[in-house]
Design a protein that fits this description.
The chain is mainly alpha-helical. The chain has a domain of about 35 residues. The two termini are about 15 Å apart.
């Protein structure tokens, strides 16, 4: 979550963590992480950092 504040406003991070993300098969980052998928979420965050998408 620390990396997310570099690509979005800190107050938006909790909502993003609960949002269904297409790149995560329309599941939430929190659900993916809770099932051991931290690296999947980290790859999405890396993509956001590289593209400046948000």
């Amino acid at each position: 979550m620390e990396r997310l504040v570099h690509v979005m406003k800190p107050e938006h991070v909790p909502a993003w963590m609960r949002e269904r993300i297409p790149l995560l098969d329309h599941t939430t980052p929190l659900d993916v992480i809770s099932h051991g998928g931290y690296r999947r979420v980290a790859r999405v965050v890396t993509g956001l950092e590289q593209s400046g998408a948000i």
